[in-house]
Amino acid sequence: MSGSAPEAACARAPVIIDVEASGFGRGSYPIEIGVALADGRTTCFLVRPEDDWTHWDEEAAALHGLDRGVLHAKGKPVREVARALNELLSGVTAYSDAWGMDSSWVGLLYDRAALPQRFRIEALSVLLDESLRATWAARKREVRATMRLARHRASADALVIQRALLRSLASASTGQSDGASGPLLSGAIPG
């Protein structure tokens, strides 16, 4: 687990999950799962593809920068990743800004692992009102630029999403446009 500290202290941030996959459509499967925990720490799991998981989209690979060789050499078996996620997230609601895809890929992981998923994945949009949804993409770009991330990877993406959400919520609660100061909404995040 990474020791990266949260951008601002708060009693409870939403847990964020992000999944990188072999492609964008039918036949794709999870290759990396990243989580930003409530305290701002991050963790990431490379997933070793199952023997019949052969779909590979070069466009997706250009985004995440992973190749099949790395996944086979350093990835963990699906059952091991599923167990680790259950230990980490049991009873928690994790939020995703790509809920439809991420929940499907995590569901596939658990199906192949033959284990029950012990946490929920919910759409991040349930935490954003209409005005926050309107500025969401810009807020994410702003946070990504501030963090100066060189790679598009699951744990880094989860942390960007978490920090952008915290900034958005702080900005909404204080009426400030930058979200840099003022109290975060402690306890306001369902989970």
Arithmetic mean of pLDDT: 85
Computed over alpha carbons, the radius of gyration is 16 Å
Overall CATH class: Alpha Beta
- How many distinct folded domains? 1
Helix count from the secondary structure assignment: 6
Structural class: alpha/beta
Distance between the termini: 21 Å
Per CATH, the architecture is 2-Layer Sandwich
The ordered string of helix (H) and strand (E) elements is EEEHHHEHEHH
Coarse morphology: globular
Give the name of the CATH superfamily.
Answer: Ribonuclease H-like superfamily/Ribonuclease H
Number of strands: 5
Strand content: 5-15%
Low-confidence stretches: 2-11, 177-191
Give the strand line-up of the largest sheet. Answer: 3-2-1-4-5
From the 3D structure, determine the CATH topology: Nucleotidyltransferase, domain 5
Largest sheet: 5 strands, mixed
